[in-house]
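Progress note, sequence design subtask.
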């Protein structure tokens, strides 16, 4: 068996249970790792012994059932621990860790199983990891880098030093000092290479935002219409869905659910394998939409500090939401320790610490359970409007958890600490600051929803009809509606999809569906306005010609 990717080795004598677990692993690792199953310790030894490569280079995780046909699971793990120091080891059991086991003990029936696998992967220490990191671990930049490595499942080794944060990509020996996410995406080859110069090519479609709506629209625009497409993203691909704590369970084609962080990687793979004419510019921030020549548009962007123009026949606004900020009585916020998203990898940093969650919706409830299961000593759940917006089953689970202390109808009045957060001041909603109580916490996670990322549209000469809060009105929400295509805004040829659109219910599957449906409207719009497609021999023109011939028949 040639080894091209890291391997999870599952040692389990029950073929049915092994097949079920393998399915769980396949969903969790998203194709980034190979999964091998063997029925006994001896079979596992044979598989390992046949490889010419150093075992620590490729064997990432070994999971073993308690009672194997030929030995005890713990005894076999002890044997592996002695021989392969870099491999992460785990015993599959529902019993509690005792400290005497040579490996982690994880329960396949736990709702936290995926997070346990994350931790195992982070504990894998191959001799040659994908990246080598040097720099201090206790900084904002280090937290940000840890999030990136977790979201993209990049194996790493970290030297805790006093110098500037530096990432070395081992495959290319490229060294990135004080890296941004954009530099890491490019340096690690995660994002497909550009097919065109984005600032000289005339695109058929420009998509602002790469969440589920934008990604699905990009793929459909390439497959169904042949549109030459540029996706502009100023943060990270995947949008808010990429930071989802729980698996997305209502997404077509994933019976066991799909991790939100998987969506951009799967989209990139689909675009590359189908050779679609789709470019991504992750370093660019859209700052205005302007009218261009011949009913086309010009997107003004800021890229690495410089201003540029992008030419577009059509525009899709899929720019999503920005996290809401707290309005504090004392507005100063420490440099480190206050976060506006919670990722599964954060639970390891908060083990045996007290943390605060601000918010009363599902995201706040899921984060509270995440940190409780990750063994935070206490989780303060501070909800100004109470827990009424939280789903009933989730709320019951939160209220029954002994580590979670809800503070309904309370709010954060102030954060304490200068560089590092040291505590929160909590008071009843409507009370004065002097009535607030002080609580020491290591971190605070503010999860109170978001506002549409549309303020930048004010700086262009294209007026897009929006609500007072900034959500974009389309088709049925416009007056008059006549002549509007589905998901078309008040401006012809400009469409909107996903959370930024008025009355969105903020579901991943709905956003993806809107992205696909918007492309169908774009196809009709392009057929009626072919002059917006600059290149006569483009795939889009050819497909439209074929469609018109079919329609005539």
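Output:
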């Amino acid at each position: 068996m040639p080894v091209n990717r890291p391997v999870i080795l599952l040692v389990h004598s029950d073929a049915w249970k092994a097949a079920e677990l393998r399915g769980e692993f396949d969903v969790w690792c998203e194709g980034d790792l190979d999964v091998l199953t063997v029925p006994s310790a001896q079979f596992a030894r044979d598989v390992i012994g046949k490889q010419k490569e150093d075992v620590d280079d490729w064997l990432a995780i070994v999971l073993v059932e308690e009672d194997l046909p030929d030995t005890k699971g713990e005894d076999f793990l002890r044997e592996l621990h002695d021989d392969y120091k870099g491999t992460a080891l785990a015993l599959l059991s529902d019993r509690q860790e005792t400290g005497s086991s040579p490996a982690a003990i994880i329960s396949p029936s736990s709702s936290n199983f995926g997070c346990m696998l994350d931790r195992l992967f982070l504990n894998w220490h191959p001799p040659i990891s994908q990246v080598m990191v040097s720099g201090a671990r206790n900084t904002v930049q280090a937290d940000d880098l840890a999030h990136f490595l977790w979201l993209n499942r990049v194996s790493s080794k970290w030297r805790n030093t006093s110098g500037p944060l530096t990432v070395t990509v081992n495959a290319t020996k490229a060294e990135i000092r004080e890296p941004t996410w954009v530099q890491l995406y490019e340096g690690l080859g995660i994002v497909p290479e550009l097919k065109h110069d984005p600032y000289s090519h005339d695109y058929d479609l420009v998509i602002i935002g790469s969440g589920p709506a934008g990604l699905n629209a990009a793929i459909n625009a390439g497959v169904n219409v042949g549109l030459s497409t540029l996706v502009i993203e100023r943060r990270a691909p995947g949008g808010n869905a990429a930071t989802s704590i729980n698996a997305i369970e209502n997404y077509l084609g994933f019976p066991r659910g799909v991790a939100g962080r998987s969506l951009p990687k799967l989209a990139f793979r689909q675009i590359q394998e189908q050779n679609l004419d789709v470019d991504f510019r992750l370093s660019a921030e859209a700052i205005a939409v302007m009218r261009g020549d011949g009913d086309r548009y010009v997107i003004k962007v800021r890229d690495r500090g410089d201003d540029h123009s992008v030419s577009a026949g059509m525009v899709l606004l899929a720019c999503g939401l920005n996290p809401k900020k707290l309005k504090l009585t004392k507005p100063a916020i420490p440099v480190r320790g206050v976060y506006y998203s919670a990722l599964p990898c954060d639970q390891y940093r908060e083990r045996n610490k007290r943390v605060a969650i601000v918010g009363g919706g599902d995201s706040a409830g899921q984060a509270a359970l995440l940190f409780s299961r990750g063994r935070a000593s206490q989780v303060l759940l501070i909800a100004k409007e109470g827990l009424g917006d939280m789903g009933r089953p989730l709320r019951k689970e939160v209220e029954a958890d002994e580590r979670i202390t809800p503070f309904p109808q309370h709010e954060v009045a102030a954060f304490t600490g200068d560089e590092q957060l040291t505590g929160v001041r909590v008071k009843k909603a409507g009370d004065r600051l002097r009535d607030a109580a002080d609580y020491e916490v290591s971190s605070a996670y503010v999860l109170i929803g978001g506002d549409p990322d549309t303020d930048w549209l004010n700086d262009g000469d294209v007026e897009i009809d929006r609500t007072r809060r900034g959500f974009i009105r389309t088709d049925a929400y416009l007056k008059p509606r006549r002549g509007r295509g589905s998901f078309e805004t008040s401006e012809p040829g400009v469409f909107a999809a996903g959370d930024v659109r008025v009355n969105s219910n903020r579901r991943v599957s709905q956003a993806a569906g809107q992205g696909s449906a918007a492309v169908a409207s774009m196809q009709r719009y392009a057929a009626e306005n072919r002059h917006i497609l600059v290149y006569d021999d483009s795939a889009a023109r050819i497909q439209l010609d074929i469609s018109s011939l079919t329609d005539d028949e």
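Residues 526 and 532 are 7 Å apart (CA to CA). Work on this subtask will continue into the next period as scheduled.
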